[in-house]
Amino acid sequence: MGERILIIEDEESLRRNLERCLAELGxxxxxxxxxxxxxxxxxxxxxxxxxxxxxxxxxxxxxILKRITSLSSQAGVLVMTAYGSLDSAIEAFRSGxxxxxxxxFSLDEIEQRVKNIASNRNLQRQNALLRQEIQQRHKPLDxxxxxxxxxxxYNLVCKIAPLKSxxxxxxxxxxGKELVARAIHELSGxxxxxxxxxxxxxxxxxxxxxxxxxxxxxxFTGAERSRPGVFRAAEKGMLFLDEIGExxxxxxxxxxxxxxxxxxxxIGCDLPTKVDTRIxxxxxxxxxxxxxxxxxxxxxxxxxxxxxxxxAPLRERIEDIPPLVxxxxxxxxxxxxxxxxRIEPEVMDHxxxxxxxxxxxxxxxxxxxxxxxxxxxxxxxEDDLPKYxxxxxxxxxxxxxxxxxxxxxxxxxxxxxxxxxxxERAACVLGISLATLYxxxxxxxxxxxxTDK
Length: 453
Description:
The protein has 19 helices and 14 strands. It is α/β, with parallel strands linked by helices. 29% of the residues are buried. Residues 137-141 and 393-399 have low confidence and may be disordered.
């Protein structure tokens, strides 16, 4: 199937020869003799490939490139230039051109360049479809919560998702940082693009730069083929850099430049490439302390930390455990082809009494998966729990009301201390009336010890 091609050339004989040659190859060809005509066509039609002279009578070729980017952003652009304007061709690359050809050229040369661009665009489409299919097959669990802290987190996600700002997600391992990143992507204007996750800690230091920015064939020993890099793979979408605190120091300046200039330079290439990729990073490490210690660049942290989202550990939001347990049990049962299982109240008590300090929601999910595997009944009962789990810490499990009361009491005490005991200010921070705060203080045994200030 032929490509939809737009030729922009003010020299009539060259324009007609190109049109005839490409039409005979099965392409659908439109022509424009000047920049103004080309803009009109770009407004009316979408093109797969645009072939344009870098110098036109009424409009500079670089201006045309900007119009192409805004009006037909998916088109591959081939720039025609003479030897004397080679510098302009280099500038065209920086503005988004995919290839250039020096005048004079043969029709065989132009045919090959068009084939190359068409092949590259087709490969990009296939890769995008494949990534989307993989993401659908391995779609993560939705955000499940009841706690106020997670409600605040979700509200912040909704607020910043449509923006272009970089986001830094912090929290302990297993709290759901990637789920929050995926929520940002799905609620953004880039949801039609792909979300490319990259765990920085899983890549050897010597290969991180190549994974991020790509490399040209032969750039180093073992580079037998070119690699586009995740920045270009996530073009028009979002790049999720997990464990950003593990990024080697020697790569940090290059990431900073990519964030500031919106362009990358693959290893072994001379020319930078513009990229339109939103960055969301995540870490369980204290980047502020690392910046103070010199193991993480302060300027990079400032660039990544435009908006920070902190996810509280599960032990600080135990009211999220019941809905998470229900959801995860249903998820694991579906994976094993079993009907949903019921959780006895005593089991839920044990689950809520556990701190899940080793892995938070991930640890809880793994534990519930084991219960689903080991239980041969339609109900998870107390005797299905491992013995060590039933007796850990020698503490009696909490009932739901008691567990929620403990969290509520701890939160109110924390707020009261932060406002130096002022009930009026505490009520304002908590978003409740003063009378409601008095009732909570009385019920939780906190009525004494605070003074209005």
